[in-house]
């Protein structure tokens, strides 16, 4: 009956990754933690309200370069770039957590059920997920954004659809390969029902790649949200968002107002790099063969 016991999940039974991977992981975690703190405390860190017009630009339009008064300068409309950049990190976190959380909560259970039960349900779900997976993520998000409209939740829904097949495919493939092993067969022979087998014997053994997907999808969600904002979709225009601010900065660049594009773009890039480093570091934990390449 030893075969019927739950095995230690593979991702908890791995040797330490390489020094380079650990450095990448710590750099990524540091950057990510910094953006979490910025998003959390942005109301107290800001120098001006993100909708406040510190230079009375509605009456006398003027822009200020970066200075001691305005660290990141102001836009041509007089809005403080520093405050908008800080507040945009909060919107980015809200969207990426919702988007990746929705896709994970749908894709993982579907992958488990599909891989374990097989049959007609598996073929239908596989066809549906493969169809979605073949569509370009940004194009699919753009189309859905037109349908669902603007807003944090709507943007998250538009982004999450393209990530669901990734979780589904990974979990389904692992479930298909593990469900015939002896410890699963022993559990079924002892009378375990489907829910027990899925939750106790399969779940922890097939999710080793999910943290990697979560980190990489979070990085992709930032870029996709920026693309939606740049095209005038995603979040309402009054909400600070890096992609939207970059679109507004395009008209200002020819006049020498470079700071309105630099700081939002730099913030978005740093956040994507941080999340990507976390994902690559996690990848070595769950894929030990990569350490020998």
From TrEMBL:
Indicate where this protein resides in the cell: Cell membrane
The UniProt keywords, alphabetically, are: Cell membrane, Membrane, Transmembrane, Transmembrane helix, Transport
Query: Boundaries of each ABC transmembrane type-1 domain copy?
Result: 89-279
What the entry lists under InterPro entries is as follows: BP-dependent_transpt_permease, MetI-like, MetI-like_sf
Per the record, membrane topology reads: Multi-pass membrane protein
Q: Which residues cross the membrane?
A: 20-41, 91-112, 124-146, 152-170, 210-236, 256-279
Q: Which domain of life is it from?
A: Bacteria
Name the PANTHER family on file.
D,D-DIPEPTIDE TRANSPORT SYSTEM PERMEASE PROTEIN DDPC-RELATED (PTHR43386:SF1), OLIGOPEPTIDE TRANSPORT SYSTEM PERMEASE PROTEIN APPC (PTHR43386)
Which family does the record claim for this protein?
Belongs to the binding-protein-dependent transport system permease family.
Name of this protein = ABC transporter permease
| Lineage of the species this protein comes from | Bacteria, Bacillati, Cyanobacteriota, Cyanophyceae, Oscillatoriophycideae
């Amino acid at each position: 009956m030893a075969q019927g016991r739950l095995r230690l999940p593979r991702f908890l039974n791995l040797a330490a990754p390489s020094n380079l991977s650990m450095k990448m992981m710590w750099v990524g975690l540091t950057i990510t933690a910094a953006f979490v703190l910025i998003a959390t405390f942005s109301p107290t860190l800001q120098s001006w309200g993100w909708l406040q017009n510190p230079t009375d630009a509605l009456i006398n339009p003027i822009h200020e370069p970066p200075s001691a008064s305005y660290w990141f300068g102001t836009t041509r409309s007089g809005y403080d770039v520093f405050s908008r950049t800080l507040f945009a990190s909060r919107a980015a976190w809200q969207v990426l957590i919702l988007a990746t959380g929705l896709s994970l909560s749908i894709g993982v259970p579907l992958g488990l059920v599909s891989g374990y039960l097989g049959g007609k349900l598996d073929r239908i779900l596989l066809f549906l997920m493969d169809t979605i997976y073949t569509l370009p993520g940004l194009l699919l998000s753009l189309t859905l954004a037109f349908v669902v409209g603007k807003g944090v939740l709507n943007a998250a829904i538009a982004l999450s659809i393209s990530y669901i097949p990734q979780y589904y495919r990974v979990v389904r493939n692992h479930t298909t390969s593990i469900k015939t092993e002896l410890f699963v067969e022993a559990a079924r022979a002892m009378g375990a029902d489907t829910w027990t087998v899925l939750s106790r014997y399969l779940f922890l053994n097939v999710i080793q790649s999910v943290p990697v997907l979560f980190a990489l999808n979070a990085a992709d969600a930032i870029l996709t949200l920026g693309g939606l904002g740049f095209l005038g979709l995603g979040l309402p225009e009054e909400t600070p968002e890096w992609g939207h601010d970059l679109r507004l900065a395009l008209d200002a660049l020819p006049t020498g107002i470079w700071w309105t594009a630099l700081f939002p773009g730099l913030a978005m890039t740093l956040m994507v790099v941080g999340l990507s480093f976390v994902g690559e570091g996690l990848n070595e934990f769950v894929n030990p063969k990569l350490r020998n390449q």
